[in-house]
Design a protein that fits this description.
By secondary structure, the chain is of the alpha+beta class. The protein contains 6 helices and 9 strands. A 3-stranded antiparallel β-sheet has the order 4-3-5. The radius of gyration is 19 Å and the shape is globular.
């Protein structure tokens, strides 16, 4: 059985049914975070081994994830929680840049990003230098979101220079939980990790 792309969950499920496969473990990444893939798999009577639909609904959207984090008193990066409207984006970005300046943060910068994207897509660093062009950047980001992720929603965050990206894999059967240690995903290109080091050692 040949599947043209690992992202084509419909073809994958068809292949499973031909082969008599009963369980689907999407791993981590794009399919594991896809509500559409989850919904399609369970309608075909294949057991989904991964996050629940409720969890995917929250985690697949940055603004819903931030809302849940704030509700549970988990620290989040300073920025907007709800999506930003085009008519407000320049004012809100300028205010965030001014706040960083007042806090004596060197080289103030904001990350304008899609709320529902993955793999570093739709991320733009905004500074005083390109603030005048932010509406055009916003429009291009919205178009990308609609085309590739089915959502135009955009959020703003403080841009963290020289940040360290640490991830933890958590496994659960719905009752018990374990973790498999940490991974350092800091080595990136265009905001997308391409080398992972495990365990994540302190810098």
């Amino acid at each position: 059985v040949i599947v043209r792309s690992y992202e084509d969950y419909r073809e994958i499920v068809e292949a499973f049914q031909e082969l008599g496969v009963t369980h689907f473990a999407p791993g981590y990444g794009h399919l594991a975070e896809s509500r559409a893939a989850h919904g399609h798999v369970i309608t075909k009577k294949v057991q989904w081994i991964g996050p629940s639909e409720d969890f995917l609904s929250t985690a697949s959207s940055k603004h819903r994830a931030k809302t849940a984090a704030r509700r549970n008193k988990i620290p989040i990066i300073p920025g907007t929680v709800d999506p930003v409207a085009r008519e407000n984006v320049k004012r809100r970005t300028r205010n965030m840049l001014e706040k960083q300046k007042d806090d004596n943060i060197e080289n103030p910068a904001i990350m304008l990003k899609l709320a529902d994207s993955g793999r570093g897509a739709g991320h733009h660093v905004i500074t005083y230098r390109n603030l005048a062009d932010i509406e055009n950047i916003f429009d291009a980001t919205e178009r990308m979101g609609k085309k590739y992720f089915g959502s135009r929603e955009v959020i703003l965050e403080r841009f963290i220079r020289n940040g360290i990206h640490i991830e933890v894999n958590i496994f659960s059967d719905g009752k018990d939980y374990i973790h498999l240690g940490t991974r350092n995903c800091t080595i990136q290109r265009q905001f997308q990790k391409f080398i992972e080091l495990s365990p994540a050692l302190a810098p």
